[in-house]
Structures are given as structure tokens and as C-alpha cells.
Structure to design on (593 residues):
């Protein structure tokens, strides 16, 4: 979720005790009254129809997510309120009011119209964070296209997998990143428009700057059926290529409500979500949810850098901050002297998502940010909204993900759908039907159906509950790797590895890591004729980075004679993990030899 930083050490803070230390809350002592008060009552009284009233609808039950995030404020009392404070990370910043955002997104919608993009066509974005990315993404949704931002670290294969599968007709990119697109453009028969920002625009491309300058700043947001698609993001599973998780315009109902209740944004807040738009957190809580609530957001470009982050909080007086555990651990590793140099007193509420948040992280925040703890939130690309979380009014049990959002039925369930008792470990499941639930896995109904069994949505995570109804994360039920909060499929990495001439076979696992949660570790069998060396390993790492993605390469590579496989030839990653971590090997009856 965050670009590569440099880290040298990990804070040596560790305490078993913290698991039993509850962070007590007294809502009346909070700086602002929480938007959600009386959680236990709301669990029974809340109806989704109440939340539907918080967003604007067009006649006949039509809706547009971008209209709710932008137009309704620009056409109302927030017209001149600052929507975006964008800092490029080099000390330059610019501001956009809701009115300016409205006009710019209208212009972008008109550009799509002019070049002939159709309703529900897939429009991809391969851009570093910049005002153009926010404008394009929202403009595409306003127009009625399906918008999909890609993480700028993707290599040509990462781009191709996504754009080919989705049949994208347009991509918005810049003079630098477009080079990677051109490496695979011949494999993308449906791609019609390459829209390029800046001055380096070729004959066959559309100049975004020129077209934006000429376009009208008036556009009536397309009235969408609530079930029509707004955005899609590709995410990884255990097997196969990344899958296209598709979301609908109606998601905005839950995006709005969860931002209001959980992130607890108030009119005067300055809100900062550190996630890139290439990930679901960036889309839902770095664009649509907060702006639906009309809050001022900060966007920071450039790489992760502790000083720059603290400076951002200080300069823009950030009050609500949503980030990720790896970032928290990296900040912790830099020590407490650094934050003490900055005025961070504007901070009011802190949140985290993506992987387990260590109890130490919660406690560290209490020390460093003037008694403000991190609130862990749990959700997935597929769920489209925070589903389990620590609310501002609620006591925090550090290490716990908190409790389900009112309107969400979550349970720990066994293989057969039978709910388990408190303290029992099992599959974390959700009762299907919440407004922001994915609507499809693009062109793959079989994959979509795999999520639903016994009347439950299986999240792929395992967890347990305690006597107070708090949920505690246990792990993944599958081989998906979470590294620095990013979801990586072992199969994708293995496929990239074996394309290297020196690699005959590859098995990939997540190996626990103090900072990143997990790192990607590969076990490879060399092609005859190659010998193991550091230079070869570095070359293989570079190869995977350049093909797949800058963040999804194996930081460790072990050369082995052979890989444990089932009789049908499937690599048993479970055994690789067990061997690496010194865990019991378990059942090996399907092992080849
Ligand atoms: C997976 C979803 C949606 C935000 C970014 C991640 C893990 C997410 C937590 C948490 C422990 C967490 C789970 C989940 N995860 N939040 N609070 N504690 N694990 O979205 O890339 O779709 O990944 O991230 O394993 O299934 P994603």
C-alpha cells in the first residue's frame, strides 16, 4: 500500500501484557462528539434504508457515486470548500475546491464522450498520484465508465493481465509510465485510446492537457442504475491470474456511512488517507467515501518518508489519519525523537488497515500522538467497505479488529457453515448482501461463486471472537501473501519466476517479517547448466520486478534440489512454509515421494 522506504531497525518494544490492556474510551472526553454513538442499540435498530437517505438519488432510483462525491457539494453549500490539498512530496502544493473538482471532472467526462468511450467501458489509469488521477478517476465514474486505477509499480505483465482480462478501451498515463504500457500494447486488441498527460504526447495518442483545455466544464452526471458498475480493481488469490473485482454505484451508500461512522469525519476535519489509488483503500477511503461526506482531504505524492509524513500532518493540520500497519511499524522503527520534533497536535483520530496491527503499534501511538490510539479496521477489496472495526466511542482491545458495522452479520464458521463458539478459531464469514459487496469477478462467475458457501461469504481469513464480541484475526486460510499490506498471489510470482531462463521450478510463500508483516520468499530449482550465485539471484529478482511489479518480487530466494509436490504435480507451499518456519509438517499423504 505504500512505496518502498528504507528501514534500518525495528523498535524493540514488545510486551505480552499489552494484550490485556484495554484502551478505555470516554466519548464525552473526545475532542468532537463521535458520529456513531450507541453501537449496541444500532446493531439491532439500524436498517440499510436509513443509510440510503444519506446520499443523493436521481429520479427513478438512479444514482451516481461521483455525483455524490463531488457535484452535490459543488452545487450546494460546500462549493468553495477545499476538497483536495495536493502535495507533490517535494514541497509544492495545490488546492482544489469542490467547485473546481466539479468543473475538472466534468471536463474529463466530456473528453471521454468526445473520443467515443461508451457507458460501462473500462477506463484504466496508470498514473502516479496527482490531481489528474483524482480528476480522471471521478470523471470516468461520473461519465458512467468503469474506472480502474493501477498501482504505478506494475510492470508490463501486471498491466497486461489486467487490461486484457477487462477489455479496457482506454488508458490514462504519463510520458514516463506509458513506456511500460507500450511493451504490451500489441497484446491489447481492445485498447483504443492512450490518453497522456504532459507534453510528451505522440501522434496516435490523446493529449489530456489539450483536450481538457478545450472541453466544456459542464456535464450532467449520468444517471446510473444502482447496480451498474463504478470501479474495478484486480486482486490476488491463491491460484491463477489476478481477478477483477467489480463494484457498483450503489456502494456509495456504504462508503459514505462507514466513513461517517468509523473514520468519523466532521465538517472541520482535514483527512489524510495514505493509500495509493491503485489499492481499494485509496479508492474507497482516499476518494469516494470522504468526499461523499464533503471533507477536506490531503493527497501526498512521492515515496514513503517518515519526516515527510510527520511534516504533512503538521503543515496541513491533519486531524483524521488512515494508514497501514507496515507504515506504523516503519515509523516506530525510526524512533520517538522524530515525531517529537513536529507539532502533531492537530491529530484527533488514527486508523489502520491491510494486515494485523500489532498491539505495540496501538500503544506506541498512545505515547507519541498524545494519547491517541490507532483504530484497526478490517475489510477487503471484495467487501468494498470497512466491515469490522474499532469505533471511536468503543474501548480498544489492542490486537483486535473490533466489531462488525451495524448492518453487517459476521461470524466464525466451520467448513460446513456451522457457526463456532467464542474462542474457537475458524473461517471469518459475512452474511451476503451488504451494499458495497462486489458484484462480480469480471468474466468469471465460477470464481465469484467460490466465495459463497452455506449461505455465507467466506473471506479467506481465519479469526476468532472473544467474550465481548470482539473479533481477533488469526491468519489466511489460503496461500495469499500479505506483504507490506499488499496482496500478492504466489502463483503470479511463481509464473514470473519460471519465465527466467535459469529457473526450472518455483514455489513461493510468505515469510513473517517484523516490518512488512511478511516478505515474499521463493524456493527455486535451477535449470541444468546454471549455478547458484548472489548475482544470479539478484538478476532473478530484477527480472520479476520488471515483469510483474516493483513490490511483488521475492526478497529471499533459496535454491533447492526439488520442490515438494502432490502426485498431481501441484507445489505444496504448505510444506515449504512449514520447513522454513520449523512448523509441524502435517498431513503429507498426497506428497509425491
Ligand atoms: C486482506 C484483504 C481493504 C483494505 C486493504 C486490504 C487482510 C485487511 C486487516 C486487518 C488483519 C487484515 C486480510 C484480508 N487484512 N485488514 N485489520 N487485520 N488482516 O485489502 O488487498 O483486498 O486484502 O487483507 O487478510 O482478507 P485487500
Amino acid at each position: 500500500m505504500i512505496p518502498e522506504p528504507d528501514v534500518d531497525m525495528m523498535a524493540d518494544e514488545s510486551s505480552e501484557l499489552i494484550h490485556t490492556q484495554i484502551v478505555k474510551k470516554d466519548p464525552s472526553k473526545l475532542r468532537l462528539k463521535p458520529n456513531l454513538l450507541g453501537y449496541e442499540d444500532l446493531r439491532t435498530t439500524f436498517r440499510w434504508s436509513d443509510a440510503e437517505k444519506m446520499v443523493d438519488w436521481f429520479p427513478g432510483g438512479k444514482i451516481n457515486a461521483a455525483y455524490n462525491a463531488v457535484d452535490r457539494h459543488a452545487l450546494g453549500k460546500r462549493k468553495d470548500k477545499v476538497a483536495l490539498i495536493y502535495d507533490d512530496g517535494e514541497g509544492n502544493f495545490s488546492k482544489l475546491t469542490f467547485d473546481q473538482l466539479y468543473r475538472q471532472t466534468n471536463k474529463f467526462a466530456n473528453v471521454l464522450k468526445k473520443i467515443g468511450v461508451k457507458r460501462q467501458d473500462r477506463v484504466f489509469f496508470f498514473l502516479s498520484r496527482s490531481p489528474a488521477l483524482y480528476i480522471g478517476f471521478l470523471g470516468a465514474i461520473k461519465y458512467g465508465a468503469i474506472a480502474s486505477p493501477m498501482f504505478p509499480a506494475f510492470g508490463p505483465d501486471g498491466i497486461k493481465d489486467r487490461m486484457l482480462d477487462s477489455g479496457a478501451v482506454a488508458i490514462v498515463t504519463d510520458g514516463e509510465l506509458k513506456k511500460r504500457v507500450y511493451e504490451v500494447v500489441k497484446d491489447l486488441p481492445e485498447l483504443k485510446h492512450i490518453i497522456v498527460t504532459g507534453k510528451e504526447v505522440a501522434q496516435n495518442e490523446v493529449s489530456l492537457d489539450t483536450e481538457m483545455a478545450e472541453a466544456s466544464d459542464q456535464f450532467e452526471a449520468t444517471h446510473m442504475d444502482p447496480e451498474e458498475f463504478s470501479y474495478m480493481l484486480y486482486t490476488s488469490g491463491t491460484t491463477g491470474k489476478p481477478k477483477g473485482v467489480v463494484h457498483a454505484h450503489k456502494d456509495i451508500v456504504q462508503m459514505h456511512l462507514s466513513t461517517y461512522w468509523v473514520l468519523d469525519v466532521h465538517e472541520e476535519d482535514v483527512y489524510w488517507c495514505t493509500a495509493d489509488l491503485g489499492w481499494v483503500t485509496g479508492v474507497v477511503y482516499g476518494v469516494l467515501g470522504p468526499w461523499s461526506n464533503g471533507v477536506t482531504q490531503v493527497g501526498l505524492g512521492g515515496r514513503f518518508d517518515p519526516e515527510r509524513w510527520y511534516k504533512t500532518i503538521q503543515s496541513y493540520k491533519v486531524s483524521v489519519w488512515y494508514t497501514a500497519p507496515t507504515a506504523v511499524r516503519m515509523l516506530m522503527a525510526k524512533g520517538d525523537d522524530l515525531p517529537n520534533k513536529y507539532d502533531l497536535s492537530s491529530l484527533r483520530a488514527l486508523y489502520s488497515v491491510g494486515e494485523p496491527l500489532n498491539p505495540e503499534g496501538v500503544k506506541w501511538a498512545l505515547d507519541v500522538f498524545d494519547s491517541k490510539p490507532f483504530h484497526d479496521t478490517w475489510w477487503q477489496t471484495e467487501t468494498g467497505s470497512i466491515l469490522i472495526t474499532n469505533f471511536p466511542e468503543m474501548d480498544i482491545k489492542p490486537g483486535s479488529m473490533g466489531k462488525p458495522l451495524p448492518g453487517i452479520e459476521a461470524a466464525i464458521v466451520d467448513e460446513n457453515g456451522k457457526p463456532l463458539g467464542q474462542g474457537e478459531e475458524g473461517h471469518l464469514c459475512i452474511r451476503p448482501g451488504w451494499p458495497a459487496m462486489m458484484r462480480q469477478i469480471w468474466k468469471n462467475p465460477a470464481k465469484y461463486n467460490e466465495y459463497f458457501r452455506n449461505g455465507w461469504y467466506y473471506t479467506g481469513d481465519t479469526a476468532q471472537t472473544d467474550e465481548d464480541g470482539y473479533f481477533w484475526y488469526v491468519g489466511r486460510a489460503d496461500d495469499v501473501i500479505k506483504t507490506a499490506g499488499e496482496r500478492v498471489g504466489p502463483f503470479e510470482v511463481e509464473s514470473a519466476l519460471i519465465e527466467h531462463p535459469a529457473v526450472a521450478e518455483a514455489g513461493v510463500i510468505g515469510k513473517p517479517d517484523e516490518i512488512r508483516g511478511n516478505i515474499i520468499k521463493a524456493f527455486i530449482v535451477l535449470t541444468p547448466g546454471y549455478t547458484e550465485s548472489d548475482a544470479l539471484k539478484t538478476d532473478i529478482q530484477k527480472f520479476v520486478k520488471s515483469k510483474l511489479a516493483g513490490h511483488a518480487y521475492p526478497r529471499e530466494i533459496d535454491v533447492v534440489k526439488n520442490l515438494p509436490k502432490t502426485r498431481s504435480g501441484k507445489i505444496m507451499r504448505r510444506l515449504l512454509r512449514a520447513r522454513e518456519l520449523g512448523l509441524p509438517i502435517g498431513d503429507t499423504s498426497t506428497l509425491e515421494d
